[in-house]
Amino acid sequence: MKTIHNLFLSTAFAFLLFACQSNSNPDPVVPLAATLVEDLAAPNDNIDRTTGEIIEERPFQFFSLEQNSLVAENEDWDLAFKGTTIRVNSEKNVQAAVVSGIFEEITEVPANATFATDTETSFAIPTGSGNGWYNYNSSTFTVTPIPGRVLLVQTTEGNYSKIEILSYYQGNPPVEEIDPRTTPSGYYTFRYLLQPNGSTSF
User: Fold this and answer.
1) Per-residue pLDDT reduced to its tens digit, 32-56
2) Which long-range contacts (CB under 8 A, 24 or more apart) does 169-178 make?
C-alpha cells in the first residue's frame, strides 16, 4: 500500500508541475495593428455648379475591410464610397455606428453604440456637415474629418472594426494647404483596426 501511495503522490506532483509549467508559458497575445488606406479614389459626380445638373455620374467604390482591398459590387464589400457619402452593405447585414472618442482609446465597442443599416431614406453613416464623419466649411469650400469621430462597422463576416477618416483630399495634405479649386477631392485616407475573431474588444 505504501508503494501505491507514493506512486500516487509522485504522479500528482508531476501533473501539477506540468500544469504550472504550461501556465507559465502561455501563447503570446499578438496585439492588433491598424491598417492605413491611402488615397482611395471615390470622387463625387461631376456637377454643374451653376445649374446643379449632373454632367458625369461616377460610380461608388466598394471596399472590403476583411480583405483590405477594393472589390466588385457583387462581392462581399463592407463599405462603398462616393464623394462624402459612405454606404454600408445592408444586403450582407453590414452595420455601422458613429461614436465620439479617441481612436486609440476605444478598446471596446461601446455598450451605447447604436448600429444601423442603410435604408431607402437614410444612411447608417449620416451625410451632411456635422452629422457623420465630416464638416463642410462654406467659407473655404473644404471638407474635413470631425476630430474625435470614429466609425464602428460590423463586417460581412460579423467582425467588428473601428475606422478613423484622416483626409478627403489626394495626398492627405495639411488643411491649410488645401485649395478646393486645384486639390483633388474624394480621395479617402483612413486607418482602421479589425478584430478578426468576432470579439467586441480591439
Assistant:
1) 999 999 999 999 988 877 777 888 8
2) 169/143, 170/39, 170/41, 171/39, 172/38, 172/39, 175/142, 175/144, 178/140, 178/142
Which triple of cell numbers denotes residue 108? 471596446
Cβ 157 vs Cβ 180: under 8 Å? no
Q: From start to end of 130-195, where are the E strands?
A: 134-137, 142-145, 149-154, 160-169, 185-195
Q: pLDDT per residue over 164-180, tens digit each?
A: 999 999 999 999 999 99
Hey, where are the domains in the chain?
32-195
Confidence (pTM): 0.83
Beta-ladder partners of 150: 99
Three-state DSSP state, 155: coil
